[in-house]
Each structure stands twice: as structure tokens, then as C-alpha cells.
UniProtKB/TrEMBL annotation:
Catalyzed reaction equations: D-threo-isocitrate = glyoxylate + succinate
Taxonomy of the source species: Bacteria, Pseudomonadati, Pseudomonadota, Gammaproteobacteria, Alteromonadales
Annotated NCBIfam families: PRK06498.1
GO molecular function: isocitrate lyase activity
Name of this chain's protein: Isocitrate lyase
Domain of life: Bacteria
Length: 533
């Protein structure tokens, strides 16, 4: 007996036990509604997606070509359309996730209006967006299954074979996928981190990403002025997230430990060393210091400390922050990553200033000397000028090989005059293969773009506005949007159905029978899209 038939049978037993009082309830309709709402709570989703992500991590360990990907989404509808598109074009949602970007929550979802990525937005907006994303993904499930049920009814009414439709129902693949959710630096102390992590997990998050910046001085990973915390402070927050997962029964929840040390030259405080060679001592060795030979040379308020047998004065700025030695970023990143993995993190995130496979690989190789299965979540960031970066990488490689470069200006390679050159074509090929190359050579398990839909919304809106308010008028929308939706088979062209009109009609028919007042019918303009594209 198929799963669908089993559900019908189960509900039939329930309704029959109630006698004539439940005679109006159709076991088949109730079974359909149950299948269309597979996930009752956010915790159900978190447990389901954690298993998916753990399996994906194991698959990647066995074969680096099996990396995963996601795009950042700032609204439930955007996440829904992304997964509908992935399933349509790839035939499966396998290895495809969603990313919840703190940057986009700050810029797009705060009651204060657009904000910089500095943890100034309401922390509750993060779990609210997780819940919203999963609400839209569940609606995608309900809508697609609803279409299959309609096809099943039509086939039965016309005496056609229904086995292939029943197989599609029984083997239906959900649009519910893992979300990697950004908790920034924890929005406060470790207790605040724990409380927010619980809300995020309850909303459905199976994976939480946390960074080692100071919470109240948090900066965007691609801006200056970043301040990191000592390892002990960061590990306390990793522990807080793990306790939240365990308390809520998501025993295999995933923690991504992000280090911003590559671009951070400052620390807020100096940790206290308890034992020779401990983490505090290792951290303090990276501080920029000046050896003190005469205590009388010290000024009021100066700090001194003993490092490796020497009395030194750490460099302190007027704002009280302490400086790290120059050119220690990569060493600090490696120590951060090893320490995080050895103390409860599952995945790493190294925030870099450019997309360079060799740079990432050099750090990952060093980490893997201590933790062989270390793997990364990597930000394929829109903050990088990908075109210029890769053209300059090719330029530098050619220069090293002794190739002729007289026709190129390294600093001007972004110019469109180079677009059709051999150098630009090779650079584009490297961009195209970046994810596969980095997965193979640099331990990147998951590739994400933090805020792509921020940029696509701006670009598509600009193109539409340019034509609509210009000479094209209505043709700008018809040719640039609606006709493309029809040609490319976007379900969203029937926006009423996408918003739930058909689902509502079906339910009203379940509840009211022939008395139901339905929105569908000959006068529904959505019928105009039932055409051959």
C-alpha cells in the first residue's frame, strides 16, 4: 500500500470511529491536507534538515565534487521562488540550501529602516525571517501537491491510468531545505546568544553561523574596523548554541564558526593566561607590543604584561582597543579555526578580502594538519569585484609565465574594452569553475552568495523602470517580464494561484461542497495564461 493510500486508510478508521457525526469528512481530502502539511512545527523542520545537512557533509567528505550551494534571501517569497526554480531546472532540491544573511536582515527587514551590518537591527527579526521562509516553502509543497491531486482526480474521471501520478505523490520531494542562519556575533553575551539561538531553532534553523567579532562593535565582514574577541569568549557562545540545540532535541544541529581575523587588526580585551601555552597566551602573542626596559618610562594608565619572559607594553589606541601585529591575520585564522573545531563547531567560515583559491587553500591545509576533515562554508560575496579580481589573477599568472602583456593595463582591467580579450575569457572560465575548484582544492563544502537577491531586485527594477517610464511604456513590462515568465515556464505568472487562490478554492470545496464560492472559473483572468508558450 502506498503512503498516500495508507494515510487515507488511517483517517478512514478515525472518521468511522466517530460515526455519523463525521460523515461529511472525506478521508481522502483529509489525507491530502495532511500530506500537504508534512511539517507541523519549526522543530520538525530543524530535525529533518539537520539530517539532510549531516548526510551532505558526509557525502562531501567522500567526494569533494558533492559540494552544496545557497543564495541569500531576504523574504519568504524570494526563498520560495528560488527553490521552485532549483527544482524546476535541476529536477531536485538535493544539495541546495537557503542562506539567511544578517546583512540583508539589517538592510531590508529592520523597523529602523535600512541599516549597516552592525547588529543594530532587532534580533527578533532573524527568527521571524526563518519562520517566514519556511512558511513560503511549505506553501510551495502544498501548491505542487495540490496540482498533483487535481491531475489524479482528472485522470480518474476520464478513466485514464493513474499509477504515474500516484507515484509522483508518493515520491514527492519537499521544497523544505536547510537554512544556514546568521546570528552575527550573538547579539550580546553568551546568555543572549543562547536565547536567540533557541528562537532561531524553534523557527526551523538546523544550522547557525556565529562570528568572533565583538558583539557591540560588530562590522560587516568586508568593511574596516573589525574587532575580534579572545577564544574563550567565542567558545562560550559556541557552547551556548550547542546547549540550545540539545535542549530542543535537535541533537545533530550544525554550528558554523566564522573567523574575521584575516581582516581584523584589533581586539577589545586581553585574556588572562592560566597555564603555559594556553589559548590566552597564544592569543596575546599576536599583540603588537613594545618591550619595556625601564618601568619609570611608563605613563599613568599604561598597561604592561609579561610575554615569553619579557615585560612588554601592548599598543593601545585612544578608544581602548589593542592592536595585533601586522601580517598575523592568516596565523590567527588558523588558530581560530582549529580551536573552534576542537571545541564544538562543525564547519568553518573564513571571511576573506578576495576570492582566491590559493589563499583559502593555504589556510585550510594548515588547519587540516590538526583537523583532517575540516571544511568550510564560503561567502562568494558581492562585495568582491569578481571581474577585476580574476582578470588581475590571470594577469599575474601570465606575467609569472612570461607571456606578453603589452596590450593590458592591470589597474584598468575592469574596462569593457577588455571584455572580449583572451585574458578576460580565461578569467571568466576561472570564475565559472571557482566553486568546483575551491571545493576540490580548498575544502569548501558549501558555497553561498550572501545578498544576490538584493542586487537582482535592484537590477531588474532598474531595467523595468527605464523602459516603463521611457519610450517602451507597457511593452517594457510585457516584453521584459510577463512574456519571459510565460516563455520560461514560471509558475509565478499565475500570481493569484501562487498566492494561494487555487489552494483556497480546493479547501472551500472540501468544507462546503457544491455551495463553495470559488475564485476560479471562466471569468478568472489567470485562465489567459493556459496557453502554449
Amino acid at each position: 500500500m502506498s503512503h498516500y493510500q495508507q494515510e487515507i486508510q488511517n483517517i478512514r478508521h478515525i472518521t468511522q470511529a466517530q460515526g455519523s457525526a463525521w460523515a461529511a469528512i472525506s478521508p481522502e481530502y483529509a489525507a491530502r491536507m495532511k500530506l500537504q502539511n508534512k511539517f507541523r512545527t519549526g522543530l520538525d523542520i530543524a530535525k529533518y534538515t539537520a539530517k539532510i545537512m549531516r548526510q551532505d557533509m558526509a557525502d562531501y567528505d567522500a567526494d569533494s565534487s558533492k559540494y552544496t550551494q545557497s543564495l541569500g534571501c531576504w523574504h519568504g517569497f524570494i526563498g520560495q521562488q528560488k527553490m521552485l526554480s532549483v527544482k524546476k531546472h535541476q529536477g531536485t532540491t538535493n544539495k541546495s540550501y537557503l542562506y539567511l544573511s544578517g546583512w540583508m536582515v539589517a538592510a531590508m527587514r529592520s523597523d529602523f529602516g535600512p541599516l549597516p551590518d552592525q547588529s543594530m537591527h532587532e534580533k527578533t527579526s532573524v527568527p521571524a525571517l526563518i519562520e517566514e521562509l519556511y512558511t513560503f516553502l511549505r506553501q510551495a509543497d502544498a501548491r505542487e501537491l495540490g496540482d498533483l491531486f487535481h491531475k489524479l482526480d482528472s485522470a480518474k474521471e476520464n478513466g485514464r491510468d493513474t499509477s504515474h501520478i500516484r507515484a509522483q505523490i508518493d515520491n514527492f520531494e519537499s521544497h523544505i531545505v536547510p537554512i544556514i542562519a546568521d546570528i552575527d556575533a550573538g547579539f550580546g553575551n553568551e546568555e543572549a546568544t543562547y536565547l536567540l539561538a533557541k528562537k532561531m531553532i524553534e523557527a526551523g534553523a538546523c544550522c547557525i553561523q556565529i562570528e568572533n567579532q565583538v558583539s557591540d562593535a560588530k562590522q560587516c565582514g568586508h568593511q574596516d574596523g573589525k574587532v575580534t574577541v579572545p577564544h574563550e569568549d567565542f567558545l562560550a557562545k559556541i557552547n551556548a548554541v550547542r546547549y540550545a540545540f540539545l535542549e530542543l532535541g535537535v541533537d545533530d544541529g550544525i554550528i558554523v564558526a566564522r573567523t574575521d581575523s584575516l581582516g581584523a587588526g584589533l581586539t577589545q580585551k586581553i585574556p588572562v593566561s592560566q597555564n603555559e601555552g594556553d589559548l590566552a597566551q597564544q592569543y596575546n602573542r599576536f599583540l603588537e607590543t613594545e618591550e619595556v626596559h625601564d618601568l619609570n618610562s611608563l605613563k599613568d594608565g599604561d598597561s604592561i604584561m609579561k610575554i615569553d619572559g619579557k615585560i612588554v607594553k601592548p599598543t593601545r589606541l585612544p578608544n581602548g582597543l589593542y592592536k595585533f601585529k601586522a601580517n598575523t591575520g592568516e596565523q590567527r585564522v588558523v588558530l581560530d579555526c582549529i580551536t573552534s573545531l576542537q571545541n564544538g563547531a562543525d564547519l568553518l567560515w573564513i571571511e576573506t578580502e578576495k576570492p582566491h583559491v590559493g589563499q583559502i587553500a593555504s589556510m585550510v591545509d594548515a588547519i587540516r594538519e590538526e583537523v583532517p576533515n575540516a571544511k568550510l562554508v564560503y561567502n562568494n560575496s558581492p562585495s568582491f569585484n569578481w571581474t577585476l579580481n580574476f582578470r588581475q589573477q590571470v594577469f599575474d599568472a601570465w606575467e609569472e609565465q612570461g607571456k606578453a602583456l603589452s596590450g593590458y593595463d592591470r589597474d584598468a582591467l575592469m574596462s569593457s574594452i577588455f571584455d572580449d580579450t583572451e585574458l578576460a575569457i580565461e578569467a571568466d572560465e576561472k570564475i565559472k569553475s571557482f566553486q568546483a575548484d575551491a571545493a576540490k582544492q580548498a575544502g569548501i563544502f558549501h558555497h553561498l552568495i550572501t545578498l544576490p537577491t538584493y542586487h537582482t531586485a535592484a537590477l531588474s527594477t532598474d531595467n523595468l523602470a527605464k523602459g516603463y517610464y521611457g519610450e517602451d511604456g507597457m511593452l517594457a513590462y510585457v516584453k521584459g517580464v510577463q512574456r519571459q515568465e510565460i516563455r520560461q515556464g514560471l509558475a509565478c505568472v499565475k500570481h493569484q494561484a501562487m498566492a494561494g487562490s487555487d489552494l483556497g478554492d480546493t479547501h472551500k470545496e472540501y468544507f462546503s461542497g457544491e455551495q463553495a464560492l470559488k475564485a476560479s472559473g471562466d471569468d478568472n483572468t489567470m485562465n489567459q495564461f493556459d496557453v502554449v508558450a
